[in-house]
Amino acid sequence: QVTLVESGGGLVQPGGSLRLSCTASGRTFNIYAMGWFRQAPGKEREFVAASMTLSGARTYYSNSVKGRFTISRDNAKNMLYLQMNSLKAEDTAVYYCAADLRSTSTSWKDYNYWGQGTQVTVSS
Questions:
Q1: Which residues contact 77 (CB under 8 A, 6 or more apart)?
Q2: Cα torsion at 9, 40, 79, 20 (round to 10°)?
Q3: For the segment 13-59, what is each residue's pLDDT rounded down to a tens digit?
Q4: Short-list 11, 56, 12, CA closest to 36
Q5: Backbone φ and ψ of 91, nearest 5°
């Protein structure tokens, strides 16, 4: 079992930055994939970024955030981060941290462990 807890969401103006954190606990030693997903009201949950392989060396981004967001992983601290820069109104959503022991996918359906989510609102 893996437990995930997100933090760092909030209200930010367009063009601003936020850093999300995700703390993992439990059976963390063999987590293969960790990722960030988001869900806006009335929309399906969508992929944002993922870190794969046991070391987290391989990263993936959705086209909508590439060049603005950076995912990073500190296995020694059981932490996952998402640095979000140049935020836009369309980035407004609940952001979820997710993990899986075997997934090589960027689909939310292929992740078994989820945090409770943290709200990010981009507005002036």
A1: none
A2: -30
A3: 999 999 999 999 998 877 889 999 999 999 999 999 999 876 767 89
A4: 56
A5: -85, -5
Residue 114 has pLDDT above 70, yes or no: yes
60-77 residues labelled b (16+ CB within 10 A) or e (exposed): bbbeebeeebbbebebee
Question: Which strands sit side by side in the sheet containing 79-84, from one edge to the other?
Answer: 2-7, 18-26, 79-84, 69-74
* DSSP code of residue 124: -
Structure tokens at 87: 């935020």
Which residue is it, tokens 């963390």? Answer: 28
Number of helices followed by number of strands (H, E) in the chain:
0, 11
Between 101 and 72, residue with greater pLDDT: 72
Question: Which pLDDT band, with edges at 50, 70 and 90, does 2 fall under?
Answer: very high
- pLDDT for 81: 97
- Give the angle 30-31-34 at the CA atoms, nearest 5°: 165
- Supply 24's token pair: 């993992």
User: CB count, 10 Å around CB of 43?
Assistant: 9
